[in-house]
From TrEMBL:
Protein name, as recorded: AcrR family transcriptional regulator
UniProt-listed Pfam families: TetR_N
Domain HTH tetR-type: 2-62
UniProt entry tagged with the keyword DNA-binding: yes
DNA-binding feature ranges: 25-44
Keywords linked to the UniProt accession: DNA-binding
InterPro entries per UniProt: Homeodomain-like_sf, HTH-type_TetR-like_transc_reg, HTH_TetR, Tet_transcr_reg_TetR-rel_C_sf
Species name: Streptomyces pseudovenezuelae
Superkingdom in the source lineage: Bacteria
Length: 185
């Protein structure tokens, strides 16, 4: 990506996340990034593709943070809840909730390129929870993965309300993992 393209994505990210995707037009993005609308369209072709680029960048950073948290885990059982630890770090600078949930709410058309990116981010996290649960030897890993995703996304959704539900969500996630890995008698 060109330097102008990077400036456009950075401006779009700030504006889309803080003001909403549908509330922000390309004129404002061009102004904030210091480029012309023509440059913006030459780089991305459309606002839809710019939204997709914005979400793709966030998704790559989020996945990297989660993978680092998983890799830093001492045990397979601890790794299952690593995305909650990653969320603790991520939430320090992302206080308007989840950009992907926000995008899904604003862009309900499944054929929109940004919709697919947002939906795939949630499906990736669900698959990761399942894979980690399998590795940890949890019983019913698919069910546990769904429960953990609901807890995780609930904690994210509460962020804009300044209700820090992450500690309780993390504790409950750990309890679910312990229950799923405890030996059967």
């Amino acid at each position: 990506m060109t330097p102008a393209g990077r400036r456009i994505v950075a401006a779009a990210e700030e504006l889309f996340y803080n003001r909403g995707i549908t509330a922000v037009g390309v004129d404002l993005i061009a102004e904030h990034s210091g480029v012309t609308k023509r440059t913006l369209y030459n780089q991305f072709g459309s606002k839809d593709h710019l939204v997709a680029a914005y979400l793709t960048g966030r998704d790559q950073r989020w996945r990297s943070l989660v993978r680092a948290a998983v890799d830093a885990s001492d045990t397979p059982a601890e790794a299952v809840t690593a995305p909650f630890e990653a969320l603790r770090t991520w939430s320090g600078t992302n206080t308007r909730g989840c950009a992907f949930i926000n995008a899904l709410a604003e862009l309900p058309d499944p054929s929109h390129p940004a919709y697919r990116i947002a939906a795939n981010q949630k499906l990736w996290l669900l698959d990761l929870f399942r894979e980690l649960a399998v590795t940890a030897g949890c019983s019913h890993p698919a069910t546990l993965a769904t429960q953990l995703l609901v807890l995780h996304e609930g904690a994210v959704a509460m962020q804009p309300l300044s209700l820090d539900s992450l500690p309780e969500s993390t504790a409950l996630a750990r309890a679910l993992v312990r229950a799923g890995t405890s030996p059967r008698h």
